[in-house]
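Re: the request from the purification team.
They wanted to know what the chain is likely to look like in 3D before they choose a buffer screen. I agreed to run a prediction and write the result into the notebook, where they can find it.
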Amino acid sequence: MTVLLLILASAALSGMILILLSNLAAFPGLRDCNAAGIAASVSVLVPARNEAAVIGATVRSILQQSYPCWELLILDDGSEDGTERAALDASGNDNRLRIFRGGPIPGGWLGKSWACHQLAGEASGEILIFADADVRWHNRALAALLCELDRSGADMLAVMPSQKTVSWPERLCVPLMAFAIHAYLPAVAVHRTSFPLLAAANGQCIALRRTAYDRLGGHASVRDNILDDIGLARRAKRAGLPLRMAEANGLITCRMYRDWRTVREGFAKNILAGFGGTAGLLAATVFHWVVFLVPWGLLIVGFSGTAVPWHPYWALLLVCAGIFVRALTAWRTGQRAGDAPLLPVAVLLMTAIAAQSLWWHWRFGGPLWKGRRAVS
């Protein structure tokens, strides 16, 4: 059994390293540019629910964009904390900003999809950019995004914002998003194949050409999908529309969570759907234990005395491989590579998050988020 576990972990880590190395060469990133020659009108669309603490800084960062032809629309989704006032105060009455309140959520819709649907209905831009309320924009970020959209020929561009982390729960868990993208998903396959499962997006920042968005059926087509971002990406691939990914390279940033409670609840909201249900989540948890925890256990046991002396050295190689993948994905995405040896702790925290998600599913029928059920 021990040898079988070591073989499985070895195969998995070898695959991750190969995918990661290919992504270092093929995964594009936003680059500073002046977007000269691009004259498309742009609508930046921000759904906001109880975001008073962060919306002001977001509005100010968007209003400072160097690209000239854009509008900012914010939908106040039933906020109870003064989100609308905070946004207006930050804008200085800039007429490029419009704020309106969302209507009641219809049956069969999830809150964010409904908010994005309403925003798209109000937008006038040829390019729609859906962004979260806690995303910050460098003053040349919009121009860089448009340059990449133009260069890549994408109809849908999934931008991966650079994640800011401060507390230990953030530092341990948030970088695993980049780990999953860069070590599990080859960009070449995402960009060059039509297989829908090879699709990715981050709802913090997605750009679509208006013609493509309408052809996909907009957010109405993913109205009941808690992973609306990935749902749109998969629909784009099925429709034969070019889907591209790009790292933000510090031009677009986000601090998703602040502490263990928000990390746990934020990831638990999506993780069950992300792995396709209970069976998939349990299988993924076991897989990550085998790949990232078992080698550490065998290493400790092996060097304390074992009947097969070469096991601990094999385990040591796998431990180093796991740290290497975690460190390299962190380096590529502007995270702390020095946190990589703590990957086993992160796996244990993600196990607790998986347990939270399963508890919500069994007890409430779905996740809870911002004071309401995240599923209808």
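For the purification team: Residues 2-23+261-373 form one domain.
Please add any questions underneath this entry.
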